[in-house]
Structure formats: structure tokens, C-alpha cells
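Task: fold both queries, return C-alpha cells.
Query 1:
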Amino acid sequence: MSENQNLLAEQRRALILDEVRRRGGVRVNELTRRLNVSDMTVRRDLDALARQGVVEKVHGGAVPVVEASTHEPGFEAKSALELTAKEDIARVAAAMAVPGSAIALSGGTTTFALAQRLLEVPDLTVVTNSVRVADVFHTAQRPSGTSGARPGAATVVLTGGVRTPSDSLVGPVADQAIASLHFDVLFLGVHGISVEAGLSTPNLAEAETNRRFVQSARRVVVVADHTKWGTVGLSSFAALEQVDTFVTDAGLSAATRAEIEEHLPGLLVAGRGADDGA
């Protein structure tokens, strides 16, 4: 971590979280020297990260929170995290959707943010297993005071299945529906992504549904903020080699970006600091 007094709080906290996860813990006095900020600033940053549930404060510093590989947060809990990062990712990913193409969106809060951006892309056919994502398109198709769909509105196909805490539909019904379709691009949200485990989720049924999504897509685009890198869920459903592009935010360190680029053909970093390795 390079010293920089002018880092925004969000960038500084992303750097701290990356350091905690990489080293397994940090001390306050180390962070004050490396970031060139006050002891009070570092402690406020650690308090903020602790409230997000991503670090645990200990005497003199912080350690990472180790969640059970089967723990699956609900949609509302996840929607409050990394809001700026998700908007940055959604903006970059939306530019990859071609008007008139058939795309798929998995469940998740990042794909939910992306769906709102995709409203501006005309004549899409969208397949999703996310109740939240489907609601975005259905609401936009019927503007108040008008009858019929707006011109160029997306055609949305919502799979059936059993609802997860993330408001995704999974299971045999969803799997069968997805397996019979073919998409130009799959925009895939993930619980975790790593070199060793690839793409993973804590939900066994969701793993199988995501596996079908990947198999049915010509191109796989993973959309996930920097906190997902290094996280491993109970079940892996795809290897890194099956991912064409990984769209993430600028919270990744330069060393982590270099590691990802060794294993993935395409890495797109969105947001402030995307080009400077911050």
C-alpha cells in the first residue's frame, strides 16, 4: 500500500480490507504509517469495515471475518454493501450488451444494479432467475399513464424454481428452463471467486443453476466487487478458465490485479483509480 493523504475514505478502506485479507490481519500503527493518516482516521475506517461485517476489530488492529462456507446473506443485507463499486461495475458492464441480443442475468445485488443500466439498451431479450432483476424490467415496460410496453423494451423470461435468500430462483425447474436456451452473453454475479475454487456459492442448488447458465452462454461476464475475490463458498460451479471477462472495481490492489490477469483473459476495472493500480 502506497502512502497517500488524498485517498478518499472508500478507497482507503478498500486498501485496508485488501491488506487484512492478504496478510490475515493488520495493526493500527502499521496502517497509519503506510497510509500516512492519523491513528483516529484508521480507527474510524476499521469501525466502518467492522459495521459492514468484513473485519473484526481486535486489540491494536483488525483481522478478517471468516464466514462459514454455507452462509448466504439475504438480498437486503448485501444491497447495502459496496454501493459505489456496484454502480461503477454496472456502468462498464452495460456497455457490453448489444441492442437486439439475448442476454442472461443471474441473481445478486450487482446484477440488480446492472439491470437498471440495461433499461437504456433497446430490444434486449433477457433471461433471469432473479425476482428482483425481473421486477426492474417489468416495471419499466409499463410506464404510468400508458398502455402497452414502451418502444424497444426488453422481453423478459423469468425461470421458475425455489426462491433463495438472495431472491433467486433455483432448482430443477430453473435448471431445465435454462438448459434449453442459448444466450449471447451471461452477466453473472458471484458469492466468491478465487484461483483455487473458481466461482463458488454457499447454496448447492444455486451452484447447479449457475452451472447451467454458464453452459448455455457464448460469453461469460462475471460482475463482482473486489470483496468477492478470495472468498470461497461451499460449492464451486465454474473454473476461472470458463470466464471471458471479469468486471470489478478499483478496490483491488495492483498485486491482486496481476494475479487475476494470469488466470483470466479479460479484466475490466471500473471506477476511480481503475488505471493507476490504487
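Query 1 returned. Query 2:
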Amino acid sequence: MKISPRYILPNLFTAGSIFLGVMAIFMAHKGLVQADSKAFTTACWYILFSMVLDGLDGRVARLTNTASKFGVEFDSLADIVAFGVAPAVLLYFYVGHDYGRYGVAISGLFVVLGAIRLARFNITTNVETNSFIGLPIPSAAAIVCLWIIVVEHQKVSFFGWIEFLRTNTYVFLIFAFFIAILMVSNIRYPSFKKVQWNLKYFIVLLIALAFVIAQPSLALCVLLSAYIIYGVIRWIFIVLFRITMKKKDIEEIKGDNGERKE
């Protein structure tokens, strides 16, 4: 199969994303064997940089007019390696191996549900929308990595929460299980693809960037955690609103039936 040289560039970004995911697995294994916390955080950063490359490949393809079905399939395979297998192996080597079959089950489930998330996205996405159905797999991988980095190297106590995570590592497995479920849920998350930028959004972006420059890992962890929590809270309010409206409709129907009988 002949490939035009123009198509190489975006696929190089995708290949780089896979390579960083594999490097993250190697570094996580080094962290386990040598009990080296720096190796674990390096593995986390590899996955986060892989996320950057994953975001660039599609944009480069659109800018160079080299989008193709091959690129779409290649990108999907890259995602399952970099954001499914790599963070799951990292999670297992970091804390999962201490909890036997529970660690194996949750780490494996993270990969399987991530693959389901990608498959559902591939067959349901025809046009760009303002939201994702379910938490995107790159975001799921990123939040697991960011929490590991913060717990390992953040000196701020946050009312003892970080110290609690350091001494109760099983919380990471519970957290990863919750994140995995969010990937295949029907909770909607903003995609920011069609945001109408104005001065207000620009100022908010500048403040966020300043926060990131001052405390990169902590800022990214807080922002992404807020993004995930926002989706859950919004879903809860929508469900409660629908239940309330349904009860009102039932009461109105009963009231109308009572009036007719009289």
C-alpha cells in the first residue's frame, strides 16, 4: 500500500503517542522493581505527553488535509495502548499488586471499559458535537496519572487528604474503578470544540495558565478533577429534575382524572 509523504506527519504523532505509552509501561515496571517513586512519576508524565501528541495528530491531519480512514483506525489503536493499557499497568505496579486479585480485576477492567468507550465513540460519532457521551479515555488516563504525581511529590496537605491517600492506597483502586465506569456511562462532558471565544473566556484561560505555570501537576489535577466532578453533578441535577417533572406530570394526570369523575 503506497502512502503519500503528506500522510506521514500526522501518523508520526500517533506513533509517538504509542511509543510514549510503551515507555510508560517500562518505567512503571522499573518503579516497581527498584521501589523508585521517580520512575512512577516519569511514567505518568510519559502518558500525559502522549495525550498532547494524541491531541495534535488530528489537528495536523485537518490542517494538512491528510485525514484518512487509516489515520482514524491507527489513532484508535494508539489510544487503547497509551490511555488504556499503559495507565492500567501503571496502576497495577503502583498499588494494585498489593491487593492481589482486586488489583488485577480493576486494572483489567480499566482497559476493557476504555476499549468499549473507544468502540462506542467510533460508531456513534458522525459530526462534531458540543459534548462527549462518557468520560473520554485520555481524560481518564490523565486523572489517574495526575493523582499519582500529586500524591508522590505534592507537599501541600489539603487537610490531610494527600497523606490519607499515601497511607490508604486502596483508595486509588476505588477511584480508578469509578473513573472506568464514567467512561462507559451516559454522562455528558463538554468537548470545547465549538466554544465561542470572547474576552471573558480569554481571561479565564490566562488565569488557568498562570496556575498551571506556578504548580503544573497540582493545577492540572485540580482542573481535570473539577471537569470530571462537573459532569457527575450536572448529571445528578438532570436526573433529579426529570424525576421531579415526572412526578408533577403524574399528579396533574391524577388531578385531571379526579375532576372528570366528579
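Both queries returned. Flag for query 2: The radius of gyration is 22 Å.
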